Amino acid sequence: MEKIKQIYEGKAKKLFSTDNPDLVIQEFKDDATAFDATKRGTVLNKGIINNKLSEKIFELLAKKGVPTHFVKRLNDRDMLVKKVEIVPIEMTVRNIVAGGMAKLLGLEEGIVLKEPVLEYHYKEDKLHDPLINEYHVKALGIATDKELETIDKYSLKVNEELKKFFDSKGIILVDFKLEFGRFKGQIILADEISPDTCRLWDKTTKEKLDKDRFRRDMGNVEEAYQEVLRRIMDI
Ligand code: UDP
Q1: Which of 18, 34, 50, 56 would be 215's cystine partner, CB 3.0–4.6 Å?
Q2: 8 A C-beta contact, residue 102 and residue 108
Q3: How deeply is 233 buried, as exposed, middle or buried, from its count of CB atoms within 10 A (0-12, 13-18, 19+)?
Q4: pLDDT of amino acid 235
Q5: Are the beta carbons of 173 and 32 closer than 8 angstroms?
Q6: Mean pLDDT of 18-39
Q7: Where are the alpha helices (DSSP H) in the chain?
Q8: Residue 94 scores a pLDDT above 80
Q9: Which amino acids bring their CB within 6 angstroms of ligand 1?
Q10: What is the pLDDT of residue 234?
Q11: Cβ contact 218:212 at 8 Å
Q12: CA–CA separation, 27 vs 75, rounded Å?
C-alpha cells in the first residue's frame, strides 16, 4: 500500500490517503510536544517505537474484543489504518492520580483510585482540551447516547486488558488517553497507544517510562521508550 497524498499533519503523526478510500496511512514522527504545543522537541526514534508499541497493543485489544482502526504495520514508521471520522473527545482513563487530575483537585501524584475514573476532554487545542461531562457530550451532539455508551464500555475494557498486560511486564498503567472514530456506522478505537499517550511507571522503582520525562525535562526519554518496547516485545 502506497502513500498518495498527505491529508493531515498532527503533532506526532501525519496521515496520508491511499488508493483505497477506506484506508489511510499514519506515519509516526519523532516530534514531541507538551503543554498545548508550547513545548516542542524531538525524541530520537520515538516514531519507530510508538508504531511498534501501538501495533502490539491494537492487536492485543482486537483479540480481546475491542475493535480498532489498526490494519497492519507497513514499515518502521507507517501503519495502515481504517479511515475514521474522529469523535472529538479525548477519553482519559485513570487508575492513579497524576498530571491534570492532581493539578485540578490539588492531590498528590500516586494516590491509587478506588475505581477507574473516566474523563471526557473536548478535543480542541485552542481551548486546551477542556474537561466536559456526559451532558455536554449529549446536549452538544458530540456523540450520541449509544456511541457514548460504547465509548465508555470499550474504554473500561481497554483499561482492564492493558492494566493486566503492563502488569505482567512489570509496569503500572497510571492513566492514558484514547480517541475513538466512526467507521461504517460503528465506533472503533483509533489514534495510537504509546508512552506518548499513557503514563507508565516501573512497578518496583516507580520510575517514569513515558512522556512525562519529556514534559518535565527528566532526560533519558528515548531510553525509557526503548525500555517499554523491550519489555513489551520480550526482547
Ligand atoms: N494525554 C494525551 N494527550 C493529551 C493530554 C493527555 O495523550 O493531549 C494523556 C497523558 O499522556 C496521560 C493522560 O492522557 O497519560 C492523562 O493526561 P492529563 O489529563 O493528566 O494531562 P497532562 O498532565 O498530560 O496535561
Answers
A1: 34
A2: yes
A3: exposed
A4: 63
A5: no
A6: 96
A7: 46-63, 99-105, 134-139, 145-167, 212-215, 221-232
A8: yes
A9: 90, 92, 98-101, 129, 175-177, 197-199, 211
A10: 81
A11: yes
A12: 10
What's at 211, amino acid-wise? K
Task: Report how far ligand 1's centroid is from the alpha carbon of 20 (Å).
Answer: 33
Residue in 118, 124, 197, 212 to alter for ligand 1 test, most ligand atoms within 8 A of Cβ? 197
| Mean pLDDT to the nearest integer, 92-114 | 98
Q: What is the model's pTM? A: 0.97
Q: Which domains does the chain have, with CATH numbers?
A: 6-82 (3.30.200.20), 85-223 (3.30.470.20)
Residue nearest atom 10 of ligand 1, based on CA coordinates:
197
pLDDT tens sequence across 153-165: 999 999 999 999 9
Give residue 178's identity as a one-letter amino acid code.
Answer: L
- 193 alpha carbon to ligand 1 midpoint, in Å? 12
Residue nearest to atom 11 of ligand 1 (CA): 197
Instruction: Label residue 222 by pLDDT band (50, 70, 90).
Output: very high
